[in-house]
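Encode chain A's predicted structure.
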Amino acid sequence: MDVQTWTFLIVGLSFVLYIGIAVWSRAGSTSDFYVAGGGVPPIANGMATAADWMSAASFISMAGILSFAGYDGSVYLMGWTGGFVLLALLLAPYLRKFGKYTVPDFVGDRYYSSAARVVAVVCAIFVSFTYVAGQMRGVGVVFSRFLEVEIHMGVLIGMALVFFYAVLGGMKGITYTQVAQYVVLIFAFMVPAIFISILLTDQPVPQFGFAADLDGDIGQRIAGGQAIGLLAKLDQLHHELGFSSYTRGDKSRLDVACITAALMFGTAGLPHVIVRFYTVPRVRDARSSAGWALLFIAVLYTTAPAVAAFARTNLVASVAGASYNNTPGSERVVPGWFKTWENTGLLAWVDKNGDGRVQYRAGSAFEGSPAFANNTDGTPKRGRAGQRVLDNVPTANDNELYIDRDIITLANPEIAQLPAWVIALVAAGALAAALSTAAGLLLVVSASISHDLLKRTFLPSITDKQELLAARISAAVAVLVAGYFGIRPPGFVAQVVAFAFGLAASSFFPAIVLGIFTRWANREGAILGMTVGLLFTASYIVYFKFLGGQPESYFLGISPEGIGVVGMLLNALTTWLVSRMTPMPPPEVQRIITRVRVPRA
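Encoded structure for chain A:
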């Protein structure tokens, strides 16, 4: 069977599994819809948390950004893994002991204010929609290649699936669906990684292959028969093509530190991850499920650097200098996967010097480095003999190849010429990663509107049945908005997700930490702090990413991906100053804080 047939089979079976679980575990009450009734076993919750956490950014885009950025891309790896440790050890048990459904619920009760709850709802919606845009883009990338449909059609298919099991099943349906999705995504990520590690280095463990010599069948061909390590050969290839060293970075230390910190603190403020710790019966189970989640997450995160290095080595060795249409005298011709990915608009080549060969060098292949090599109506741009070109004028450098970072993990098995079923399995894994996180995020939006805005603020008299209906309607509307952002994303997956983490760090993290570990933080300080942090960070991102701001104007050289740390510090400073100038929280609130922090005898 060919790749498309295998894809229809494997992806179709996985979808049937997800929908079947959603029907079996559909929510029958608001408790089921919001926190799965609080009865999920720790190991299942750990697996669901890992699937919720390892989004399209982890599965699709992290290896891609490591492949292209090398050492500089490691900030994503360090920030996301460190952030989950911070969340698991510092915040999760206390939030679970507080016993509320959502982060806005915690903020509203801890800061004894409906206004604080509303501000937290706005922050949650802002963060969630920014995050979900990356997931929907990941869904579109997968479908555009493996089902050979337009990207916007792929997003619509993903919307329909998420709508079904998120709106019907709520948190209960999502949780058990995510357990299945974790199994699918981790199997899909590890199988090709093991295959390629053996082919390149003769090491069956990718983590060991990452630091090994090129000893496998393909590895020996790339190394030219010499004994050389994978990373050393990758550095050599980069040097020959004019790229920066793969194992040394160009970013400033301050920017690296800020991006890493923004991702860490943003993780600890992500509402769709925090709500996971309300789905277990006891505080002890919250700690246990956090440990299981760390174990499940580590499997993928320790493998991703190896996948990135394998893919980059294979890509450069198979494409650079190869003939596009079997030019006379050429030793190599671009492989079949190259032209297949061209049809998606996520890989593009223009023959600047007319020699019929792919010149892959440092520099942008096209003016503006477009995210998609498509016309405005979504149709591919083509030139003579079916060769893909863009309407805009090529840049002065001699690089002729544009590669979207988000295709690396998906194209990796094809680049290594693995069996068709492995390629299809990766597609199923990528969809599992994107859809699991998208469902969790959409539920946060739904709960924020129906529970925090309606039930707790504006319409306290509505019944549980009416609240459940409102939750489902708001989830449906959220799916539609998420689909729009998936069709028109503001960047590649990992970058969009990094913006969401910065927004979470600048809005939620100080409010949560100060709410747990201090008694002096009050409602006036929290409301103004969250507002200042969110507005500053969002304005900085919008200015530099959408309004033409230039990198030379960055504040202290800090990129938009890392500015969330500055927003977080402004939030904390504002909260401290305002809280010191206004009355202390009421005694009953201070007693709640003490109860949450002190273990029972």
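The first strand starts at residue 347 and ends at 349.
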